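Researcher: We plan to redesign the surface later, but first we want a full-length starting point. Tokens attached.
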């Protein structure tokens, strides 16, 4: 492997913790309902062994963000998260100002957990609220109620967290625009600096896919989005990505690195990573099943160098989620491809009102983000071939 020039490509680290109390019917992530005792210490040992084998991929670059996702990472104790972060720092250069996020479920964390996470070095929490409607939470298979969301945010604030994200869904079965807006209003009352507000989608290999709930029609979904976006703007949250809204200077740095095609190491069961080298962009993944992963954490399920047709599509799949788009210079630097390669597709997207060109920049229109799949398929050469 040939390393990129130092500092050329930003680097993050994703850590996957795969266990949940129960599996939600809409979830297609690699998560597993916990059966028996949580093997947190053995799993962290496997994570750090996995990282040991991935150290050469970092090429001495600093880690700018760490995201501990799942699953439900807040099932892990503060002491074990402390062990994990200490072990990461022993193997990698973590920037002093690095954003370190941990996902938390309001039904699987308390004030003691939050205080311990903060002491361990976690400086950002992403709390999975999903809804403030008790009936909707039950339908979604969540183990918490609306009051536990408020208690979790209060406990996190008391523990010293200033950087808090709330995850919320819209387009829930039976939901109207008034109910969706009520969810947003209750979230804003808790004063998080970041809100992720995304539409419920029915994915394969989920319970909802096999037993679909009634979904709002497209006209209602559009109405909900328009009202929600307007309300969040009014409350001082700027939309910088399809489903991400932030107070000034509080953009989520880890996900922003994904969207701008940065690099990321990935450890944990089923984790996926991306690394740029002078020989090409490499994608890799780990064994999905937690027990098998713990037995051999360094085993790769897949590793491949992206072909040019995959590079241009993957870049656009991430970049076109950003409201301000990206520079042409970034496209060429991250993919190694000339911008002229996608010139025809860009012009077609402009003609259809899905994309606009600013000086030196590609930017999706409001229509382009509303019909993102239609925009992206234009850059999918594999789709053209098929």
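Model: Full-length starting sequence:
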């Amino acid at each position: 492997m040939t390393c990129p020039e130092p500092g050329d490509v930003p680097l993050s680290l994703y850590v996957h913790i795969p266990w949940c109390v129960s599996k939600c019917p809409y979830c297609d992530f690699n998560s597993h309902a916990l059966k028996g005792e949580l093997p947190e210490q053995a799993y962290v040992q496997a994570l750090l062994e996995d990282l040991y084998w991935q150290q050469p991929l970092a090429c001495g670059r600093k880690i700018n963000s760490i995201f501990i996702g799942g699953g439900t990472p807040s099932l892990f104790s503060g002491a074990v998260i402390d062990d994990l972060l200490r072990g990461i720092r022993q193997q990698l250069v973590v920037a002093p100002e690095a954003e370190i996020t941990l996902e938390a479920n309001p039904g699987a964390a308390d004030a003691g957990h939050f205080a311990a996470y903060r002491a361990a070095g976690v400086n950002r929490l992403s709390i999975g609220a999903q809804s403030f409607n008790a009936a909707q939470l039950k339908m979604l298979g969540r183990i918490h109620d609306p009051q536990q969301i408020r208690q979790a945010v209060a406990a996190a604030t008391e523990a010293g967290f200033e950087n808090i994200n709330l995850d919320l869904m819209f387009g829930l079965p039976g939901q109207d625009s008034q109910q969706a807006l009520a969810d947003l209003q209750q979230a804003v009352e808790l004063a998080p600096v970041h809100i992720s507000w995304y539409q419920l989608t029915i994915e394969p290999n989920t319970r909802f896919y096999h037993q679909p709930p009634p979904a709002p029609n497209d006209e209602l979904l559009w109405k909900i989005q328009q009202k929600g976006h307007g309300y969040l703007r009014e409350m001082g949250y700027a939309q910088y990505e399809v489903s991400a809204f932030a107070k000034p200077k509080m953009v989520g740095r880890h996900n922003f690195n994904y969207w701008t095609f940065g690099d990321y190491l990935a450890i944990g069961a089923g984790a996926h990573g991306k690394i740029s080298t002078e020989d090409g962009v490499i994608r890799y993944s780990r064994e999905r099943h937690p027990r098998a992963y713990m037995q051999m954490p360094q085993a790769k399920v897949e590793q491949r160098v992206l072909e040019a047709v995959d590079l241009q599509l993957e870049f656009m799949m991430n970049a076109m989620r950003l409201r301000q788009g990206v520079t042409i210079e970034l496209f060429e630097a991250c993919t190694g491809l000339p911008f002229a390669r996608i010139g025809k597709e860009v012009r077609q997207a402009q003609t259809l009102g899905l994309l606009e060109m600013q000086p030196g920049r590609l930017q999706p229109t409001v229509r382009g983000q509303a019909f993102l799949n239609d925009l992206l398929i234009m850059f999918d050469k594999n789709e053209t071939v098929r």
